[in-house]
Write a structure and sequence with these properties.
By secondary structure, the protein is mainly α. It is about 80% helix and about 0% strand. The chain contains five helices and no strands. The chain is flat.
């Protein structure tokens, strides 16, 4: 049970962190489009609430990931982690950022979901 909780936490924190980082960077704009010095841009970026929370979630995910590596085979947990985080980020990008998902992406997502199922039942 603890393994499942760590996997879920790791996935949710990593995906949530990525979505918050995207949100924060969307508000900052591209570094190539700003007239700020790079150091000033970097400091402003790091002080954005979405960026700070995103980094904290990423760190929590990393700590849980290290714990998972001590408990499980990486050949099992890594595909589950990457695939599930991919699915959550894709769904979040559509819901929160209005990104377009075409048929090829949907089919690819279904293949990933099938892979998650196969990996999870392989042991």
């Amino acid at each position: 049970m603890i393994r499942i909780l760590f996997i879920l936490g790791c996935i949710v924190f990593a995906a949530g962190g990525n979505l918050l980082l995207k949100s924060g960077m969307g508000q900052m704009g591209s570094v190539t489009e700003t007239h700020l010095p790079l150091a000033h841009y970097a400091l402003q970026t790091l002080l954005k609430p979405q960026i700070l929370v995103g980094v904290v979630l990423y760190i929590l995910s990393f700590v849980m990931w290290l714990s998972l590596l001590s408990m499980m085979d990486i050949s099992v947990v890594y595909p589950i982690f990457v695939s599930a985080a991919f699915l959550i980020v894709m769904a979040g990008s559509v819901v929160w950022f209005g990104e377009h998902v075409n048929l090829v992406r949907v089919l690819g997502t279904l293949v990933v979901a099938a892979g998650i199922f196969l990996v999870s039942v392989s042991k």
